[in-house]
Write a structure and sequence with these properties.
Number of helices: 4
Oligomer: single chain
Shape: rod-shaped
Largest sheet: 6 strands, antiparallel
């Protein structure tokens, strides 16, 4: 790729050299006296110097190759060359070739847009002592990184991981805080009972064994604890939602406020605990409910009828 740039550069510069030779004119004394050291260097750009216009030293008739770690945006390099001091820019995926027609009398700004959205500005200068044959641009940006750049994505990933760790670490505390908020909402003069008792009920349906084990009542909420065993030898099972109906002369839907399962996906021959939470319905003697566990994107549903709360 770099070789093709050099070939294109030669095609640009060669006619100028041929024309000078045909004219029979020797280089001026001033040009003959200027002997600059050609060098290759790395230009490190970070948050502290990105706004200070890093310098690239160029010289008349000398090619300067600028390389980038990140691909360039198509047509992303631009020089504000109102006086026509530069030959046309040659650009490839990660390289620029700069060739001034003559030594620059003053600085020229070079703007470069990278494919990830990063925008860099350089200052092209001609100095007497040296010129850059090649400049390798190394980016180390964090605060100034473009949103789509690798550095910005890495920073975002670190932030998300930290938030996830904080969420996981505080999940137990969050549960305690929610229970505490329920206490605040209660009438302090009303009796509050915590009740737990075993519940009987279960069935085998769709190669699933579901058993109701315990009922907890606390602050107007009922928590129904179940075990679910996937007896299918091949197919996993994923819980989508639960439905509760209060049985009587007519079935009444009870709004399920929360459903928690131990596993996101229940593999074959594995069992898990499931907790279904709903507001405790008005108490009557021998109150019974119907509980449905519905499979996500499937038809392996389970219905337990006649559960006594």
């Amino acid at each position: 790729m770099l070789r093709s740039l050099v070939v294109a550069l030669f095609a640009t510069v060669a006619p100028v050299a041929t024309l000078a030779a045909a004219s029979g004119r020797a280089p001026s004394a001033e040009a003959a006296q200027v002997k600059r050291e050609l060098r290759r260097r790395t230009l490190a750009i970070n948050d502290s110097n990105v706004s200070s216009l890093p310098e690239i030293h160029v010289a008349g008739g000398t090619a300067t190759v600028v390389s980038f770690q990140v691909p360039l945006r198509s047509g992303g390099a631009f020089i504000a060359d109102v006086k026509g001091l530069m030959n046309p820019l040659s650009q490839s995926d990660r390289f620029l070739v700069l060739v001034p027609k003559k030594d620059l009398p003053g600085p020229l700004p070079l703007n470069v847009s990278l494919a990830d959205g990063t925008v860099l500005t350089f200052k092209l200068l001609t100095i007497a002592t040296d010129a850059d044959a090649q400049v390798d641009v190394a980016l180390d940006l964090e605060r100034s990184a473009a949103p789509d750049s690798a550095a910005a994505l890495k920073t975002s990933l670190v932030s998300v991981r930290a938030q996830l760790d904080e969420c996981q670490a505080g999940s137990a505390a969050a549960g305690v805080a929610k229970i505490a908020s329920l206490f605040i909402q209660q009438n302090l003069d009303a009796p509050h009972a915590f009740e737990r008792h075993a519940i009987r009920g279960g069935d085998k349906q769709s190669r699933l064994l579901v058993e109701a084990r315990w009922v907890y009542r606390l602050l107007g909420m009922t928590y129904l604890v179940l075990t679910v065993e996937n007896r299918d030898p091949v197919k996993p099972w994923v819980l989508d939602r639960a439905e509760v109906k209060l049985l009587g002369s007519s079935s009444v839907d009870v709004k399920v406020l929360s459903i928690q399962a131990e596993l996101a996906t229940l593999p074959p021959d594995v069992s898990e605990k499931v907790v279904v939470a709903f507001a405790t319905p008005p108490q009557t003697a021998r109150q019974k409910v119907s509980l449905s566990l519905l499979e996500k994107e499937g038809a392996r549903h389970v219905v337990l009828d006649g559960l006594e709360l």
